[in-house]
Sequence to fold (323 residues):
Amino acid sequence: MTEILRVENLRVEFETNAGQVKALNGVSFSQEEGQIYCVVGESGAGKSTLALAIMGLLPHSATLVEGSVSFDGVDLMRAGSDYMRSIRGKEITMVFQDAQTALNPVQTVGTQLEEVILNHTNLSTRQANRMAQDVLRDLGLPDPRRILGEYPFNLSGGMCQRVMIGIALVLQPRLLIADEATSGLDVTLQAEILDRLKRLCRDLNSAVLLITHDMGIVAHMANRVGVMYAGSLAETADVIPLFKEPRHPYTWSLIQSLPRLDDVGRRLQPLRGSPPDMVNLPEECAFLPRCHKALSQCRVNPSPPLEEVGENHWAACFNPMTE
Fold:
């Protein structure tokens, strides 16, 4: 497969009244065409910051300390605003977590959907309108012509989410970033949207970077998984080895906290403690206070880098879980 996205040593900080929040701390991974790469982790792990950095949508309070994001061989961090505008919405698109907030409340759905088409194609307004109706119809929305004339506040949360996905999919992007795209939706609608994303990968060979905290979605969707903790990748592997043989204690703890239908009598093992203060990150492993496998080496050395612990399987741990 052809590599489409490469993130190398990405470090991002936010200026706050409490100090510098170290949101991303040396994140590195790559993604191939037609691949669904899931980024999973607790709230505050840096997942959404990673998505915004790739899209070039970091707020003014954010600082890119170092690192690069290469899309199809072009470093987006240094490509310039004109280039980003030319590919954002066409080659790279994003579905935000809260569609009702992300959509413009004073513009109709049709205006917002057609704007993407008209900005990146030579189609007429009538053709763009027809194309917008087609994508909403494909997403299961009834009477798409009427919906194009509605404002976002007149639609339900699920309908707004599908409109947002329609905006992201209408030009058949090469890379779609979905940040908790199905959060808060009922399970039936969630399944429909996830299946739509799978078809995008299968039919168009597009890549999907799926950000979630739901390990069930990861198991259903992912080809490859990156587990984030405190702004860093704790583990990355193909989906089956990750669930079958998690090597980082954090990944193992996440999986142990999930209920299982094949082991009804097993007691759930909740992950105790809280994530670290991102303003005052420790020099040693950030997971140390919550880790049940910590060694003396973990307490005196800097945070470990990602190291290969199996075939195409990497973990940032001095004492990884045994196979």
Observations:
- Residues 187-204 form the longest helix (18 residues).
- The chain has a mean pLDDT of 90.
- The chain is about 35% helix and 25% strand.
- The two ends are 28 Å apart (CA to CA).
